[in-house]
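**User:**
Everyone, produce one record:

**Assistant:**
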Amino acid sequence: MTKPLKIWLWIVLVLNVLSACLAAAGAMTTPILWASVVLEAILILGVALLLFRQRKMGFYIICAVAVATLIVNIAQGTNVATSVLSSVLMPLIIYLLMRSTWNEFH
C-alpha cells in the first residue's frame, strides 16, 4: 500500500467517524438521517478493511456505499449534481491511489 493511499484512507476514516457521530446526533430529531448513520458505519467498515486488512472487499464496500448514498441523498432532496460528485469522488480517488498496487490487496 502506498503512503498517499494510507494518508487518504486515514483522512476518509477520521472524517467519516466524525460525520457518523454528527449524523447520529441529528438523527435524534430527524429520523430519516438514520439511513445516513447506517451508511457511514458500513463505509467505515469498508475503509477499515482496506486500510488495516488490505482487502479488496473494502474497496467494493466503499463503492456500494457510494451508490447507496447517492440514492439516499437524492431521496432526501439533495442537489443531484452535488450528490453525484460527492459519491464518485472518494471512490475514484481511492482507486487512483491504489491501482498501481492493486495486486497487493487480497
